[in-house]
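Q:
Just now I want nothing more than another pair of eyes on a protein record. Here is the record:
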Amino acid sequence: MNHTIAELFRAQFIAIILLLATSLGCYADESGKDKVLFIELFTSSQSLTNINSNLPPGNATGVKYTHYEIDQISQLQNELSRGLPKDAEQAKQLVLQRFQLIDAAVSQRLENTAKGLVKAMHYGIDRTPAMVFDGQAVIYGVTDIDAATKRYTQWRERSGR
């Protein structure tokens, strides 16, 4: 099969344009990621009420957050063991029955808690409430997201990050 130089050039030109367009699309996606502030909230059942009242509605523009309530496993354990009989075999049977009643929502909460505990260990978080910003900075004890975000922004500006 004989191809003219013009045909070969046209095919190479189209391939280069497609490659360039794909590459630019990847860079555009990467630059957009830098503009999103990612906040991870680590709370317990005691601090949950204060933090939830200050969450931005949904995922506000420019802010993405994930909330981990990290004491759900111990709460479930308390619920499962509440009112158990002293006889070990009867208690075992009752706990197994209670396990069977766990629905998808409870299962999802437990999965979120497990992920939160792993992340908390990764970040070295030792108390709640805690907010991690962009995986770089942790602010403890603040239950107002706006105030914590302002602190993080000021720190970032001072440190040149």
Q: What stands out?
A: The chain has two domains: 1-34, 36-159. The mean pLDDT is 75. The longest strand covers residues 37-43. The chain has six helices and four strands.
